[in-house]
Give the backbone structure.
Amino acid sequence: MRKDDRGFTIIEMMVVVMIGAILATIAMQSFQGVQGRAAARTARNTFVSLHARTRANAIERGQIVKLNIDKGGDSVWITRGTTRVETVRFGGEDFGVDIQGSGTLTLCMSPRGYAETACNSFNSTQTLVFEAGGDTARIDMQTMGQLK
């Protein structure tokens, strides 16, 4: 009498499923680390872009334009006079990034393209830290408006 040895046993199938689950867990943890670093860097680059738009807007319009940073609310917005030109919420679904610290900062850009220090809410270099998933990206904002 001949026995058919086709297919896999339940033990063999369970071993394959367990190995797959372990590899998937490792891959997910690695992906989350990459995702946090990318979100923090993207938020930093978006802030740099907002800073450049504030400066360009001041030069184009020939008037002071303000870049406002709300660390507690994780948002940044541009105002020209009493008009809010643009707002970015870093803590929302788009970025999921926390701007470390509390309070607000205001950088006033003059029509010459430099910061108007009498209008700024700070008088020394300010460091902004964007944090997502344990990863951070930082940028220094100087009193004359330069970013480093």
The CA atoms of residues 129 and 138 lie 4 Å apart.
